[in-house]
Amino acid sequence: MHDLLDSVHAATPTATAVRDSRGAWTFLELVEYSHAFSRWLHGKGVQHGDRIVLQLPTDRELVAMFYGASRRGVVFAPVNPAMKTFHLKSVIANAEPELVIGDSTSVGPLREATDLPVYDLADVWREVVHLHSRGTPVEPAAVTPNDVAALIYTSGSTAAPKAVICPHSQVTFATEAITTTLGYRADDVVFCRFPMSWDYGLYKVLMAHFAGAEIVLAGGESDLVLLNRIRETNATIVPLVPSLASMIGTLAKRATDSTPSLRMFTNTGAALPQSTIDSLRQAFPGVSVVRQFGQTECKRITIMPPEQDGTRPDAVGLPLPGTSVLIVDADGNELPIGQVGEIVAEGPHVMPGYWRNPEQTARAFRANPRTGEPRLHTGDYGRLDDEGFLYFEGRRDDMFKRKGIRMSTVEIEAAAMDIPGVRAAAALPPTPKRDLAVCVESDLPSHTILRELARRLEAQKVPATCHVLEDFPLTLHGKNERKQLALMLDGSDA
């Protein structure tokens, strides 16, 4: 992966590569600091194939450490700064790292979670700066495309986070394919609020640098200055999740200054409600709002071509170049165009599985019965049209029958988000303890929400109850925290 950086450095060494709240580095500076961190790892005895776990904020230093680890063939395993000791213990036990790096906030919990060496970033970086000033070379490591570049820990159906294995070959293929499809340019400035512990944030770094563009790491910025920072940095591309999109739309309505530099929003995590897309387009005339669909297990599955923004409003795009998407039934048989089934991805972007988790790997990653090529069975449901566009219908756990009708939480949430004044929404399927429910963040009373839903949905799909919340719980990556909502309602998991 470091070759992506080095090729741009060779062409434009003085261009700005990465910016955070404390300053910026050129491509030359980023390359030099990544070499210095590589030398630091060598000095600590970290070898090819070893893992390092890092619990750090996403800033310039973390980017340099990412590329520096890549240079030595060391496996980079970042974890979210908000992860608690309970999960840290399982992550460290699973990764079996050679060492762990934290900052002043995370060093204490990390030392509670492991007996391995835990280094404070402040001490590490002093040594890295010293190595940078000396410029002492170190024997390069022999890194191959099949070597593991990173472990990305995800939450999901298991109690402990599981790590997606990300080899250099799959990561570089996905980076090039996504960047080309979205049309990133060398003059772009990508304003990213997401941590590198999430693949969405990690790939934004790689994609920006593959294009020779600048990445602005804004995860630590206050929500109140968000639009100001987008203007000040002359951002042209802003990656979104629905909660951030809603926030930007709300802030933009109150703002008096325009943001003429913005040309593209990209979305992942969950579908953007049409009302949110409309508010973004109204606030930022001429901007494209690009819908995408994917999973960490293959990074990206489909992207709506930016030039077709506004067309096929229910579609989530076309497969990446060089990849394919199939819709299959419960027995793995391919279904005809238009029929709903499980979404299966195939291509060079499909990762090899989960780190030291053969059971979960066997469940999600299966061979094409004809070619033997790996396929990702996503557990998501959708359909294809006759031009190859994908339409997302929901996850396996999102789909259920009620009053004899099959439905999905996705369509109920979309209807709720269509109601003016609703800022967030999550539908919870029926359980033995309660009927279908919807939770919203809004100033509207619950009976108004239910009345408006009845105007938008068939009678069987209207929730029995509506719960209005002042603070809507979100996951570390800005998605709806369904488990917490379900626990609040009935003590069960969603």
UniProtKB/TrEMBL annotation:
GO molecular function: acid-thiol ligase activity
Sequence intervals crossing the membrane: none
Residues of the AMP-dependent synthetase/ligase domain: 10-355
SUPFAM superfamilies: Acetyl-CoA synthetase-like
Annotated InterPro entries: AMP-bd_C_sf, AMP-dep_synth/lig_dom, ANL_N_sf, ATP-dep_AMP-bd_enzyme
Entry keywords, A to Z: Ligase
Pfam families, sorted: AMP-binding
PANTHER family the record matches: LONG-CHAIN-FATTY-ACID--COA LIGASE, NONRIBOSOMAL PEPTIDE SYNTHASE PES1 (EUROFUNG)-RELATED
Protein name per the record: Acyl-CoA synthetase (AMP-forming)/AMP-acid ligase II
Taxonomic path: Bacteria, Bacillati, Actinomycetota, Actinomycetes, Pseudonocardiales
